[in-house]
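Hi team,

As requested, here is the filled-out complex form for the pyridoxal-5'-phosphate run. I kept the field names the same as last time so the parser does not choke. Let me know if anything looks off before we queue the next batch.

— J.
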Amino acid sequence: MGARKRYFTALKGRESGKEYSPDEVRYVCEFDFGPLEVKYDYEAIARDLTIKVIESRGPNMWRYKELLPIVGEPTVGAQAGFTPLVKADRLADRLGVTGELWVKNDSVCYPTLSFKDRVVSVALSRSKEFGYKIVACASTGNLANSVAANAAAAGLECYVFIPHDLEPGKVLGSLVYGANVIRVDGPYDKVNRLCSEVADKYKWAFANVNMRPYYAEGSKTMGFEIAEQLGWRLPDSVVVPMASGSLLCKIEKAFNEFKKLGFVENTPVRMYGGQAEGCSPIAQAVKKGIDLIRPVEKPDTIVKSLAIGNPADGFYAARSIQDSGGFSENPSDEETVAAIRMLAECEGIFAETAGGVTVAAAKRLFDTGKLDRKGCTVLCITGNGLKTKECLDGQFTTYDAIAPNLAAFDKLFDSIGNGHGAAVPKAQPALA
Ligand SMILES: Cc1ncc(COP(=O)(O)O)c(C=O)c1O
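And here is what came back:
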């Protein structure tokens, strides 16, 4: 795959506006130590990228490659993205939605069943352009899985750093690819701090530390796809789960870029964020109407993928929610589990705990009138339920095994009153 024209022209301090060469490895502004954004030449992009060009390309996130910060052709994530946008009519009925309800289903993103395959595709493609041979990350689980899998496929050595108490499915989901899994005795924020030091000392490419400006841009593809799959239009509202807050900000950036390029009409989109009650620094700020993020020292929730106490993009996510006229909710773990079941029963989609937060937050937002039941709403489901299945422990009982004959089945069928399905749900929790 040959080199292509460069469409991203600089890295730029988000606050200071100071510009840096895109060929330097740099992730904070030397002027104010703030985060860096990628700057693009939108005129050049507009000359080369059209809806027709996009539609002529393969069904993966790189169909928008001019809007992603790599120099040559992508080398990682050839099949990532372009996940289904599902019209969720049965869920809409359950939630009393009379407008359109859609689920953006990244629980089936390739290869590791979360939206993190999008960010990793960009971070690792760019890491390879810089010549790195060792890649790494600080992760709450999904990112580690994705860096591990994509590094394996790209022939890169890999170290993933995670809190010591992650779900077994997420730990195994990194080990299986041959990654070095470093479990750290402490919550995510401590893992992240350690990774900054390791990145400085060992000069590895950390997807979400020194490659963060590139990594973060990968999340835009979820927004691009939502607009394209809605028929080149924007929804009225989007509900996004938040950990660092980056995904929410980048979905909004994607919508704005499509407006700028004239691919969609300039209609407003309200941004809504969900966090778990036991770790909700961004949601709490939004609910108080402030943008000051008060860090959570000790996250206490089953939603481990969102358990970032001191979110890097929290301030920007809170701002984007408030400025767009959206809101944020922080459902309890019980509501999250009930919402996982509701999504599964209504739409046949098994989401991880972060997806439960999205649906449970949306339910609260609809119930309180913060989210309009008559509009077009997209719920972002960002990870797969098989990775966090322990959250459903004790929720179901199965029938005793029967002898392999019809009489045994007849007897069981009678005993369950010509029953419903193969499992007996325990009393339905609050959300039903
Ligand atoms: C499944 C899932 N959804 C959402 C998020 C939130 O991502 P962000 O840090 O961009 O807010 C994460 C982060 O780890 C995640 O694993």
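Two things worth flagging: The mean pLDDT is 95. DSSP finds 15 helices and 15 strands in the chain.

Thanks,
J.
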